[in-house]
Each structure stands twice: as C-alpha cells, then as structure tokens.
Amino acid sequence: MSLKKLVEISNFYGQNEDVVLAGGGNTSFKDKDFLYIKGSGTTLATITESGFVKMDRQKLAKMWERSYSEDTAKREAQVLADLMDARIDKDKRPSVETSLHDLFEQSYVVHTHPALVNGLTCGADGERIAKELFGEDVIWIGPTMPGYVLAATVKEKIDNLKKNGIVANMLFMANHGVFVAGNTEEEIANLMNMIFDKLSSMVKRKPDLTPVEKDAYTSVFKKVLGQEVALFECNREILNFVENEESFLKVHSAYTPDHMVYYKHKAMFLKNGEDIKSAVEKFENKYGFLPKVIGLEKTGIIVLEESEKAAKIAAKLFCDTVKIAVYAESFGGGVFMPDWLIDFIANWEVESYRKSQSSSL
Ligand SMILES: [Zn+2]
Predict the structure, then answer these.
(1) Between 3.40.50.150, 3.40.30.10, 3.60.110.10, 3.40.225.10, what CATH number should domain 218-359 receive?
(2) Smallest Cα–Cα separation from 33: which of 61, 5, 73?
(3) Ligand 1 center to residue 89 CA distance, Å?
(4) Residue 196 and residue 205: Cα distance in Å, rounded?
(5) What is the distance between the alpha carbons of residues 349 and 146, in angstroms, rounded to a whole number?
(6) Cα 230 to middle of ligand 1, angstroms
(7) pLDDT tens digit string along 339-361?
C-alpha cells in the first residue's frame, strides 16, 4: 500500500531537523484518481495515514478550466472553496500547497523548507547557481504570491517542459523551499541526497550553533512587557548577528513564510543601555505588533511568547533564519522576501490557520 510508504517517507524527513522544522513542509501520494495530501495542521514527523486528506484528482484538474475573480481576496476564497469541494475526506483540511502537488505526474511529492536549500533560494545568485548545479531545465520560481497565482505559475513551467519532452521532478521556490517528485521512495531519496550533496559542496562557511552561556535579563522583559514567557537563547552564530545594529540587519526580516508564521516578519534590536519599554513602543508603533524576537546587543536573543512551547518554536525558527543567512553567504548573500509578498502573507487567512493548528498540537 503506497500510502503506507508515504507515511514512512514523511516521518523520515519530518524527523530530520535539517530538513523539516515544526509544522513546515508537506508530502503527497497519488494514483490515477486520487491525491493523498498532508492535512493542514499535521506534522510530518509524526503523521499517520489518517493525517492525509484524500482528494478527487478530476475535480482538482477541473479547477484549471475555471476562470476565477480578478480580485485577489475573492479569487482565493473561490479557489479555497473548490479545493474543499475536491475533498473525499470532508472533515479534514488539505495543505495550502495541494494544487502544486497535483501538478507533478509522479506518485510521490516531497516539499520541504530546509535551511541549506533556503540558503540557495534566498541567495542573490540562487537562480544562476541552481541552473549551474541542477541543469538549465530545473524549475526556479521567483518570489510569487502564494495560492492560485503560484500554482498557475508552476503549472505553466511544468507544461512548458512537458512540451519539450521533459518531466519536471525538481522545483526551487525563491524564499520558500524545494519540491521533489518521484515514482518510488528511491527516486525521492536520490533527488534529496543529490540536492543536499551538491549544495553542501558549495557552502564556504557553516553556521556555528555551539551554545553560549550568557547572563540575560529575561525577568526584566517579562515585567516590562507583561508577557508570560521570556526565553533566552544564544549560540556563537547568534552572537555574530547581534554584534551591532548593522549586523542584525541580516536576520531582522523574514526569509520565508515559515518565519512569519512563528514570529512575524520583523525582529527587534535593542542596544545596550537602551530603554526597553520605549524601544518596544517605538517598534509596536512602526510595525503594529509586539516583537516576539528581540536581539540584544552582544548578548543573544529574547523570545517573548504566551507559552513555553510557542517560545521554543519561535526560537527554533529564528535559529533557522540565522542558518539561512549564513548559508546564503555562499549563494550571493541573503535576500529577504519582498515587502509586497510579506504584506500579502501577513494578511492571508490560510497561513494564520496553519499557525493556530500547529500551536494547538
Ligand atoms: Zn512550503
């Protein structure tokens, strides 16, 4: 039974933190009639057969014949309604990336957001290097609005390759991650290994995550800001980035949507001796939310959250940002998501649904 294999593949990659963090990434299996896609709010590390949503592929294909509204919000609502209608399992919600999975003709699709890969996808020279490493026909998608526009862009690329007799099996998405597709477990493993090997060979400097002990004034933050949890985190690489305001600019914004899901799109920087309360007020006035991650000059970071669990996940995601920033040095230097994309995602209902599901797990 191939759904069983899909569970194995999903658990295997899901349990490797170099590949998958928190609720990120998704996988699927398809036959002629049905697509089984990871349900929204499940995690690959622990997913079982019941975590996948069975979808009607004929209905998914019909979506391409429909014309949707020009208005973004209306269009995404219509697309979501059709996606929901294509479910065989009516009580579950499929991953937001379902349409992308269905576009690949292979049986298995694995989509992940590994830090090493995102060093490439967030790198200023990422596209050029991807083509050098993986061939001219590798699919590269620049920063694109998620949802229907993204799926349509991918469809066009896959269809174009098909016209030239090429079956797409690998796709890199700028500021997001990678898709690999194969008909067997081995094909998936070979592609994943090839990508990791080739990218590793390009890396000139690896992130140094050796923990560093520091005295942090966490209680002060809890008191001043009234947050439940203030978690302190420091390692050698974080120290490099909190050296001063300028070095923090390489990690202060969002490289991928994942980071926004867990700590929003901006981290604050606090200089030594600066008044916490007024600095936070200034930040809140500018960005419209309280900072979840604060870089403390020459000290480390403080994560402010409502629960220990949420704080730990946000800290992990900030460390992911740090890793991406370091890996991206080998691919032309890190480039954050463009502002228009950050604004769009910040206002998108589907991502907030993912967050609410993930944190309730
Ligand atoms: Zn993704």
Answers:
(1) 3.40.225.10
(2) 61
(3) 22
(4) 15
(5) 12
(6) 29
(7) 999 998 888 755 545 555 554 33
**179 φ/ψ angles, rounded to the nearest 5 degrees:** -115, 135
**Torsion 104-46-345-247 (CA) sign:** negative
**234-255 residue pLDDT tens:** 999 999 999 999 999 999 999 9
From-to residues of CATH 3.40.225.10 in the chain: 2-202, 218-359
CA neighbor of 125 nearest in space, from 328, 336, 326 = 328
CA distance 128 to 134: 10
Report d(CA 284, CA 331) in Å as an integer.
33
- Cα 174 to ligand 1 centroid, rounded to whole Å: 11
Cα-to-centroid distance, 21 and ligand 1 (Å): 11
Q: In the CATH scheme, what is the code of domain 2-202?
A: 3.40.225.10
